Each structure stands twice: as C-alpha cells, then as structure tokens.
Amino acid sequence: MTTPSRLFSRGSWREVSRVADVLRAETVGGALLVGAAVVALIWANSPWRDGYTALGGLTVGPASLHLDLTLAAWAADGLLAIFFFVAGLELKREFVVGDLHDPRRAVLPVAAAVGGMTVPALIFTAVTLSTPGAAVGWAIPTATDIAFALAVLAVIGSSLPSALRTFLLTLAVVDDLLAITIIALFYTDDLQVVPLLLALLPLAAFTVLVQRRIRSWWLLLPLAALTWALVHASGVHATVAGVLLGFAVPVIRRTGGPGPGLAEHLEHRWRPLSAGFAVPVFAFFAAGVTVVGGGAGAAFADTVTWGIVAGLVAGKTVGVLGATWLVQRFTRARLADDLGWPDVLGLSLLAGIGFTVSLLIGELAFGAGSPADDHVKIGVLLGSLVSALLATVVLRIRNAHHRRIAAAETTDSDGDGIPDAFDRSPHDPGHA
C-alpha cells in the first residue's frame, strides 16, 4: 500500500541547510526593507517632503540611449532586475536539483501560489467594480514580499518547523515568477519588436558563456546589462530580463563533482546585493507617500485602497489556505505529523505581506506619482501591516507548541554533524 505523501514534510538536511542560509540573508534584507520604508514615510510627511520628491525625480543616465531615467525609475527598472535575477536562479535551482524537483512535493507551493494569486485578484476586482479605470490594478495584491515576510517570521517564529519556512520561501519564489509573467503579459505598453528581438543576441551569448561555466564578470556583466537595456527599450518591463538571465544559468556542475554549481555560486554573490541594497533602495523610493494634508482621507475613500487591503488580507489567506486544503482533499497528501492547520493559517496570513512587487505593479498600473498610485501605496502598506499583525497572533501561539520539536531537531547524539531528526529523514541520501 502506498504511503500518503506529507504536505510541508521535512526536506533533506542539505536542502534545509541551504534554505537556512537563504533565510538569514532575506531576514536581514527584510529588516533593511522595513527600515527604508519607514524612513521614506517619515521624510515624505515631514516639512522637508519636497526634498524627498526632488530626490526621486532626479534624472540621470545617457539620453542618447533613452536611459535618462529618474532615480526612482532606476530603482524600479534597474535594481529590481537584480532582485528578479536572484529569483530566477532560485526558482530554477528548486525545480532542477532542489527538493521540489519531485512533482509530488512541488504541487503544493505551486497550487498555493496560484490560489494566492487568483483569489486576491478576484476580490480586488469585485471591490473596485464600481470605480471606472480601477480594474487595471487587479494584479496589485497578488504578490508576496519574501524579504518582508521572512523578517516578520524570524521575529515571531523562531521555533516553527523548518519545513514551514521552506514552504514560504518556495511559495514566494513561485509567486515572483507568476508576478513577472503578469507584468510581461498585462503591463507592457507600446511594444517595440526590434529591440526585443535584438535583446535575444546578448541573452544568447550570455547563455552560451554560462553553459560553458565561464564566470568572468567582465564578459557576463556587459552582456547582462545590454540585455536589460534592450528589453527596457522594447517596452517590456526590464525586470523580465533579470528572470531570463537567471533561467539561463546552469544549476548542475558539468563534472558532477561536489561543490556548488554556477547558479548557486551566482546566487551566493548576488543575493546580498539584492536583499541588502536593491530591494531596500526601491522600497525607499516607492513607499514614500504623503498622508498629511488630506492624502489619507482621499485614499480611504477610494475603493482601490480597500480592494488592495481586502485582496492581501482576505484574498491571500483564502487562496493559500484553500489551495492547500484542496490538494489534501483531492490527493493522497497529508500534513506532516508535527504540523496542524493553524500553522497553515498563520503562513497564509503571512503571505498577505505584499510590498515590493505590489508597489511595482501599482506604479505600472496607474503611473508613478499619480493620485491612484499614492492610494495603492497606502493600501499596500495597510494591508501588509494587518496581515503581519494577524500572522503574528496566530504564529506566536503556534511557536510555543513547536518549541519542543525544534529542540529535538537540534540534538545530534551520534556526533555526525546532522541532527538526529534528519538522520531518520527518508529524503537523505543513503537512508535505508
């Protein structure tokens, strides 16, 4: 008789160790992101708010190449390309050699991500149905901010099972892929075919070099920059170039020997830049909305604001939790023995923290600096805050329950460097 697969089951020790390293980097990045957003909000609502606006509107770059962009645009189009490059590396690695290369393990985060995208979009559309022109923002509440969510999780859930953290990471990565697909398909205006076709040339050259395991930055970086510039000129959002470049990098070492492959090597190099600089700088320029002088009142009277809040708080929770329940209901999968549905509820609430990509889609949908974009920022900030607070309540309760389990997982009685719980894991190589 076939043993039912377990939802949120523990992965291999190697995979859990790698995810732990990722979580540490993203947690620090999340703290920097929150700090940058707070500074932006304080500055944008201070007597010196004109200086904040002037800084974001400062234009730099060569006009001859159509790259004379404002600092805010450079942050959204340029720095976020680094964020999506790392996301592309992570996603490819997960499905090539990670624990999720097994379709039985991959189906849950993929289904949860799809549910967490579909339900918020439907809720936003329903709430804003009476507002002309608001439907264009349907995708704003569909994305989860992994850095922000992991920063919250690190504070409130130190004893939560590693499998739950791994699931959140993978859910957010798949979420990013869906978000960038939405951006490419639905938020591309005035498509220029020639630059888009020309972008294939440096992308192909980049692919050939990385497939040959060439790591020379002076070869790869110019090709990546040229690919980005041509995609930007085509009208497709330039962050798409980051994902394509990430997908081009091979995951498995050519020799098959020990050690990291090129994708893991590049991810190790670029993740600190992404989490520690690119995303916080974008947050600094994107989150500064002025609420003094009647700005908050106008936002709270707009259905766009409440559509985003409802989409993030209720939509993400229902979508992620509902998709997980459906996977269990119609497959043989079951929750892991040490997890309960309150854990899944807390994680689903945490997925409602939408920040980086939500703000980006808001700018693409309504135009950066427009009144509607300001309402988007307030909706995203409020929805993310409510989701974080509700997740804190649920997961703090569950954290005490799992503290004993976490203590057992750190016990290494045989001194082999691998916790006893993982010695018994069926996913570890050599397990009988």
Automatic annotation (TrEMBL):
Domain of life: Bacteria
Region (Disordered): 408-432
Chain intervals with Basic and acidic residues compositional bias: 421-432
GO cellular component, one term: plasma membrane
Compartments where located: Cell inner membrane; Cell membrane
Membrane topology field: Multi-pass membrane protein
Catalytic activity: Na(+)(in) + 2 H(+)(out) = Na(+)(out) + 2 H(+)(in)
GO BP field: regulation of pH
Keyword check for Transmembrane helix: yes
Keyword S-adenosyl-L-methionine: no
Keywords in alphabetical order: Antiport, Cell membrane, Ion transport, Membrane, Sodium, Sodium transport, Transmembrane, Transmembrane helix, Transport
GO MF annotations in UniProt: sodium:proton antiporter activity
InterPro entries in the cross-refs: Na/H_antiporter_dom_sf, NhaA
Positions of transmembrane segments: 21-44, 64-86, 106-129, 135-156, 168-187, 193-210, 217-233, 239-256, 277-300, 306-327, 339-366, 378-397
Main location group: membrane
Stated family: Belongs to the NhaA Na(+)/H(+) (TC 2.A.33) antiporter family.
Function: Na(+)/H(+) antiporter that extrudes sodium in exchange for external protons.
Protein name: Na(+)/H(+) antiporter NhaA
Species of provenance: Pseudonocardia endophytica
